[in-house]
Amino acid sequence: MNSHFTDLTDQGKNTKNRTKLARKLPKMEPENLPKPSRLPRGIHIVKWKNSSGETSIRYRVRTQVNGVKENRLFTTFEEAKEFLLLFKSKLGREKIYSLTEEERKQSELYKDILTNPTLGMLIDKYVEDYFPISPTEEHNTRRYKGSIRSFYKTIKQTKIPAPTPLGEVYIFEKYLQAPEKQIANIKPEEFTLKCIDDYIRARRKKGIKGISIERELTHFSNFFKALKRTQQYKSISNFAVEFDRTLLNSYKKEDNKNKSRKKAMTPEELENYLSLLDKAENPDLKLIVVLSLATAMRRSEIVDLKWEQVDFEDNIIYLPTTKGGYAREVVLTNEAKEILLHKKEHSPTTKGKVFSYKTYSGFAASYRNICERFDINVNFHRLRAEAFTRFFNALGSNGSDTMLAKFLGIRNVSKFIQSHKPKTYSLDTEQDIIKSGGHKSTQITYNNYLLNMIGKR
Fold first, then answer.
1. Rounded Cα–Cα distance for residues 95 and 103 (Å)
2. What range defines the domain where residue 319 resides?
3. pTM for the whole thing?
4. Is residue 2 scored above 80 in pLDDT?
5. 398 within domain boundaries
């Protein structure tokens, strides 16, 4: 018998010792204890003392039927009695041991999960380690982390054909009709290069653009880089950087073909748009829009802006955290400075905030409502593009695109220029002629077109 248990049943077999036994039983026991002499055969009352010295009553079932022995403890007499009755029948014993077998399988499953977790569990741990969200953090910080966490949630929930022992066999795949499996339920050692290509195809079937899939793959790659730092997975391959680039590029080209041409608002369109915003209940709505046009700031950056971030002497707005997760200094243009000085003088807000909207979502709802009310087809993100186009136009042909990108806090200069620089349509320079001809290299133009032309002179 366990040294922590004291069997009290035998001490009460005669009437003389029953009173002594009652004194020994803890008074905390809520139920009426049965008299030891009336206990069913096979059930014993035991007093259990834990490491802190506290005592309680348990009921031990110790019995044997057809050579099968059982020895278990229960917290109540009713539980012990029900188990004993169940154990005495053949069907009861089968039920008891079938449950025991289920418990064993469950235990093995838990052990396997702890020693060899799924990608979903590893991704969850990575997200909690690298992108924990605290309610005390700034809105932009929480928004940035929330965006990253959303990417990983999408990755986990995406279903792909379940990895098979066939490995990288592609040719008969469409005839196999392999069952689909969420990436979250796949083990790291099961994940192959084919899985990452299947992920790209699965996301495309959902209508996701190629550039967005590429962004997801970047996050997937960051996860694998962190995973490889652990001893258990140091030799695992980072398949997220070895995907089929031809496949992804074909989707991106297809997206470019379907992309509609975007034009900046004319002065008349802009004037009409701003006049409709005058009808908003909160005058800060229009001010936020105009400030975005003057600085190319995001709406969340403006809505949460505090006066302490505005430096009128150095003409800078300091953003400690942005959507990209890094700090940025926004140059105060003359137009932006005039807006903020007027706001500070005529309608200062409380708690140090520049504008009266309490939350980013509150402003977003107000902007959405006024757009629906007056059939305005201008989403807020469009204002950044309008601002960039303004800056490029003001820059002129002799300005530096790189310096403008630095001025605006843009990191990917080439992508910025490609997305926002106004197109010029002329044949005034060599580059214009080559671009118009559809060539990326001057050598192609020279070899295939200029040489023959010169030869005919």
1. 12
2. 267-420
3. 0.52
4. no
5. yes
Q: Give pLDDT tens digits for 299-320.
A: 888 988 999 999 998 888 888 8
Question: 181 and 246 in one domain?
Answer: yes
Under DSSP, the state recorded for 450 is: I
Question: Would you say residue 17 lies in a domain?
Answer: yes
pLDDT tens digit string along 197-248? 999 999 999 999 998 999 999 999 999 999 999 888 888 899 899 889 999 9
Angle between helices 139-157 and 119-130 (to 10 degrees): 170
Helices and strands: H and E segment counts in the chain:
20, 9
Q: State both tokens at 98.
A: 């079938």
pLDDT of 407: 57
Check whether residue 413 and residue 428 sit in a common domain.
no
Q: Has residue 84 been placed in a domain?
A: yes
Cross-strand partners of 311: 316
pLDDT digits (tens, 9 = 90+) for 250-270: 999 998 887 776 677 888 988
Considering only CA atoms, give the Rg of the chain.
36
Give CA angle at 302 (137, 277), nearest 5°.
140
CB count within 10 Å of CB 375 equals 7
Residue 84 phi/psi, 5-degree rounding, is -60, -45
**Which H helix or E strand runs over 194?**
helix 193-205
With b for 16 or more beta-carbon neighbours within 10 A and e for fewer, the 380-391 pattern comes to beebbebbbbbb
